[in-house]
Design brief:
The chain has 233 residues and is of the alpha+beta class. The chain has 3 domains: 26-106, no CATH class; 108-169, Antifreeze-like/N-acetylneuraminic acid synthase C-terminal domain (Type Iii Antifreeze Protein Isoform Hplc 12), CATH 3.90.1210.10; 174-232, SH3 type barrels, CATH 2.30.30. Helix content is 15%, strand content 36%. The protein is built from 2 helices and 12 strands. It has helices at 4-18, 26-46; strands at 52-56, 73-75, 84-93, 96-114, 129-135, 174-176, 181-188, 191-199, 203-204, 208-213, 218-224, 228-232. Strands 1, 2, 3, 4 and 5 form a 5-stranded antiparallel beta sheet that branches. The longest helix is centred in the first third of the chain and has 21 residues, at 26-46. The chain is flat and about 65 Å long. It starts with a helix and ends with a strand. Belongs to the FlgA family. Residues 109-171 form the SAF domain. Residues 1-23 form the signal peptide. InterPro entries: Flagellar_FlgA (IPR039246), FlgA_N (IPR041231), SAF (IPR013974), SAF_FlgA (IPR017585).
């Protein structure tokens, strides 16, 4: 029979082996908080696009010696965007520190590809494209994701079959020409006021444009097809 001190030592050792290892150390808790802050920030920013958003952050991207922070603040450094391969900054107000964490954001969505080789000057119709689904964050900027972005538009360059259609391949159709007389619609909480004026710049649909009202006041609004400019909300 084992002596009592020996039995006690063996029992203690068995209990230690059976107990799960603790992982909620200050460092791992700080790493988890950083991962959550970056993930939520990128999910919120990337969700402004249509499509299903997935955020990937490698374990090695989170510093092992990360310091705890009660209120980490995520932000996009200059030149970064909230999709594809990107880098997110995280700053802590107290204690003050800033670090940068690489991540990848996937946006699963439909996009348009040329159904066959398209010649420059072609006017696009439904027979000219196919809809595919994939990670649009990995595609070139300006890739078209909806048929209404392409139908009736004219290609400014040839496009090989199977190639994603992009906005910079299309001729720009000016919704408002410089010097054109336009209708100005001012919007506000509970009201809408119409005026007229002269466009000081040319702009495509959805682009900003400056207008001088008949009163002489200069406003900036958003150009709309049909010679209309929206100002305000």
């Amino acid at each position: 029979m084992l002596a009592k001190p020996v039995r006690t030592i063996l029992l203690t050792a068995l209990l230690l082996l059976a107990s799960p290892a603790r992982t909620d150390t200050p460092s791992s808790a700080a790493q988890a908080a950083l991962r959550e802050a970056v993930t939520q920030f990128l999910m919120r920013e990337a969700s402004r696009n249509s499509g299903a958003v997935t955020v990937e952050i490698a374990d090695a991207a989170i510093p092992r010696n990360a310091k705890p922070c009660d209120a980490p603040q995520a932000f996009l450094p200059s030149g970064q965007r909230a999709w594809g391969h990107t880098t997110v900054g995280v700053r802590c107000p107290q204690p003050a520190w800033t670090l940068f964490i690489p991540a990848r954001v996937r946006v699963e969505d439909d996009y348009l590809v040329a159904a066959h080789p398209l010649a420059a000057g072609s006017v696009l119709g439904a027979q000219d494209w196919e809809v595919r689904r994939g990670d649009v964050a990995a595609l070139p900027p300006g890739t078209l994701t909806r048929p209404d972005q392409a139908v009736g538009r004219t290609l400014r360059q040839a496009v090989p079959g199977g190639t994603a259609l992009r906005s910079n391949q299309l001729l720009v159709v000016q919704a408002v020409e410089r010097g054109q007389r336009v209708q100005v619609i001012s919007h506000g909480p509970g009201f809408q006021v119409g005026n007229e004026g002269i466009a000081l710049t040319a702009a495509a649909d959805g682009q900003p444009v400056q207008v001088r009202l008949d009163s002489g006041r200069v406003l900036q609004g958003i150009a709309r097809s049909g010679g209309r400019v929206d100002v305000g909300q």
